[in-house]
Amino acid sequence: MAVVTSNGKRRQHWPSANYHFPSPNSKRPRVSTMSQNHAQSLLSSTSIISRISKYPETKPPLHREVHAPCRPRKFDSPAFNRSFHYPRKEEISYDKGNVLSKNYQRAKNSALASIRFGEKGKEVIEVDADSSKGMVSEDSSVEEDGREHKWQEGGDLVVTEVKDLDANKDMHGVPQQQSTSSVVSELTNGDLNVVNAEKMLDTLSLTPEHDLSSVQAYKKLLDALGQRNDTLERLKAEIQVNEKRMSTFELLRPKKELVEEVPLEPFIPLTKEEEVEVAHAFSADRKKILVSHEKSGIEISGEKFQCLRPGAWLNDEVINMYLELLKERERREPLKFLNCHFFNTFFYKKLISGKNGYDFKSVRRWTSQKKLGYGLHECDKIFVPIHKEIHWCLAVINKKDKKFQYLDSLRGTDARVMKILASYIVDEVKDKTGKDIDVSSWKKEFVEDLPEQQNGYDCGVFMIKYADFYSRNLGLCFNQEHMSYFRRRTAKEILRLKAN
Q1: What are the start-end ranges of the E strands in 234-368?
Q2: Label partner for 469 (CA 20 to 30 A): which of 44, 246, 366, 395?
Q3: Alpha-carbon distance 429 to 399, whole Å?
Q4: Is 401 a catalytic residue?
Q5: CB 148 within 8 A of CB 167
Q6: CA 414 – CA 257 distance, rounded (Å)
Q7: CA-to-CA distance for 277 and 281, rounded, in angstroms?
Q8: H/E element holding 273?
Q9: pLDDT tens-digit series, residues 109-127
Q10: Domains of the chain: which residue ranges?
């Protein structure tokens, strides 16, 4: 049952909780009881709320900013109303007819609207340049406490610029001249005027002693370069002192001994085939001729070949054969080896076979140009094997370094050998070239820094290896432990008639 209004229409049920129903007329009799009205109101409100809840929630439309120029409308959205600024009462309230207050307010608003911030704390205040009252004079700029003021002739304030105090220094750190007076301005007849420029300039106290504007640019550059040159000179002096200290420390530091690199070629191990070949030659028939050298006429039988076994003394045939192979090696590869001559083991015996212990004529023909194909005076080194009963040594006529050398694996010396070889080379050059040479200034050296023999039978191997390494122009970088290898290598080279 519903309540009927005075006009005979049903009341609409509003879903809002803030809706208030008007109180019924107290004079009109109640149609229904309180309980019935309460039950009906609960039922109607519940049904309305349930129906409203079924509708989907409305979402506000997405706000999109207009990306094109548009004409402002008189009645626009609330966003436009918020952005639109109405001047406040105090901003537009001024006394009627008060021109001074009007001009002051206009200048203030214009200045505040044009404030912008520059780099390094510079604050710049500019006024629009649309004023046509006059041109800004060049003399109307005055600097005071870091601020620069410019006035327009007979007009308002044009530009006021606040400079950074650090800008008063130039690139070299020299402070620029600053004014010490203040600008006196007057506010007369509603306009912002400035005292006469002449009076203002008179009040400025400029000290020409500190004025650097007259200093030319090249003088500033010269001063800067002078300061830089002083710094460079100071650094140069420090470098020289440190270099002297370093040289002193280098002298005090113990020097490292230079270690000569051992060449690989003289120590190339034998292959299995070469080892088998040498072993087969050692076990061959003693009377069989294993190898013969055609040019020298030397033949090596199985019996003579046995001297290359460990523990045996080398004989003349094996030594002479090997020295011939060394000479052929030098001729085969002249750029790799020195130009050398190797005498055989019989040369020195023949040379000292005379009555006075020296006989040049007995060996004169041994070194003819026809026989050798070269002259001894052309050689860098001449090797002479020396046999002393049961010991082998080596003498060297070192024409390249102008000295006589004596090498003994037992550290022995023999000055007589040096004297005889000195006489021989003088006679040899005189006989073959007709020239006299002076060897009195040549050094006579008994080589001490050489590998030593540790037993009583390897002297012959040491002697031929001295000649081998010296002809290579190498240091004597071997010792007693290499003797077994050198014996097998020498046997292999003799069997193949080729020294490597």
Answers
A1: 289-293, 298-301, 340-342
A2: 366
A3: 12
A4: no
A5: no
A6: 31
A7: 6
A8: helix 272-282
A9: 877 776 654 444 444 444 4
A10: 95-208, 313-496
- Amino acid residing at 79: A
Superfamily designation of domain 313-496:
Adenoviral Proteinase; Chain A (3.40.395.10)
Q: Taking the chain, what is the end-to-end CA distance rounded to the nearest angstrom? A: 137
Cα 145 from chain centroid (whole Å): 51
**Phi (first) and psi of residue 116, to 5 degrees:** -140, 160
459 is catalytic: yes
Q: Pick the catalytic residue: 149, 293, 387, 391?
A: 391
Beta bridge pairs of residue 187: 192
More confident residue, 150 or 416: 416
Q: Which of 307, 341, 380, 408 is catalytic?
A: 408
- How far is the C-alpha of 340 from the C-alpha of 354, rounded, in Å? 27
Residue type at 355?
A: K
Contact 300, 308 (CB under 8 A): no
- Rounded CA-CA distance 279/292 in Å is 19
Residues above pLDDT 90, as percent of the chain: 42
| Cβ count near 247 (within 10 Å) | 9
- Residue 316 falls in the annotated catalytic set: no
Q: Quick one: 162 exposed, middle or buried, by C-beta within 10 A (0-12, 13-18, 19+)?
A: middle
pLDDT of amino acid 476: 92
Backbone angles phi, psi at 192, to 5 degrees: -95, 100
d(CA 28, CA 300): 164
From the number of C-beta atoms within 10 Å of its C-beta (0-12, 13-18, 19+), residue 274 rates as middle
For 282-336, list the strands marked E by DSSP.
289-293, 298-301
Q: What is the pLDDT of residue 124?
A: 47
Structure tokens at 334: 């002249």
Q: Is the dihedral of CA 50, 55, 56, 59 positive or negative?
A: negative
In eight-state DSSP terms, residue 171 is: T
The residues, ordered by sequence, that sit 6+ positions from 238 with a Cβ below 8 Å of its Cβ are none
Q: Which DSSP symbol is given to 116? A: E
* 299-310: average pLDDT: 95
Residues facing residue 443 across a β-bridge = 403
Per-residue CA distances from 178 to 137, 157, 172, 182, 254 (Å): 20, 22, 17, 11, 67
Contacts of 258 (CB under 8 A, 6+ apart): none
Tell me the DSSP string of 126-167. E--TT--S-PEEEEEEEEETTEEEEEETTS-EEEEEEPPGGG
Q: What pLDDT, in 10s, does the model give residues 153-172? A: 444 444 444 444 444 444 44
